[in-house]
Every structure is written in C-alpha cells, then in structure tokens.
Amino acid sequence: MMQKRWLVTVIVTPKARENKVSYVSYSEDLIRVRVVEAPENNKANMAIVRVLSKYFQIKQNEVILVSGSTSKYKKFSLPGNLKIFQREGSLDTEKLEKQGYLFD
To answer: What is the spatial distance between Cα 88 and Cα 84, in angstroms, rounded to a whole number?
Structure first.
C-alpha cells in the first residue's frame, strides 16, 4: 500500500535574510517559506526542499515539487503521516483524503 500524501501550496520569498518557514496554515494547506537563495538555476527550489524537510523533520527526498518551479506559488507533495498531524490534532486524515488533499 502506498503512503498517503499531503498537497500543499508554498509561497516563496527568495533573497531573504534567512531560510525559514514563516507561516503555516493547515486549514488552508498553505505554507510561506523564506530562502536566502536567488530564484535562478533551481537554487531557490532546492533551498525550499531543505527548509521544508528540516521544519517537518522528514527526508529531503520526501518533499516533492509538483508544480510552479518558476513561480513564487508552488505546489509540494509531503507525506500524509507527518508528525505535525498528530501534534495539531485538528487534521482528520480521512476527511482530507475524501476532499482530495491526501492522495496515493
């Protein structure tokens, strides 16, 4: 059985002072990320992967860019079994799956 995934919109601010997750809304499936790297030669995208993997305590290869590689609005696929789901307690993974936010 394949692992369920969480589809999330990431809004990126490149050329920031530091790499960090600055905002997370689980109800809106939205994350704002600031990265030091410039948006050239895929550097900013790779920095986003590193920042998200560190923030959610997952491996970098579990953070998948789905769309928006040249846009500040990107779609990423993250594991649906993130520790944050249990910590928040507000996300019902069955409900998210039915609504199409979690997928195989």
So the answer is: 6
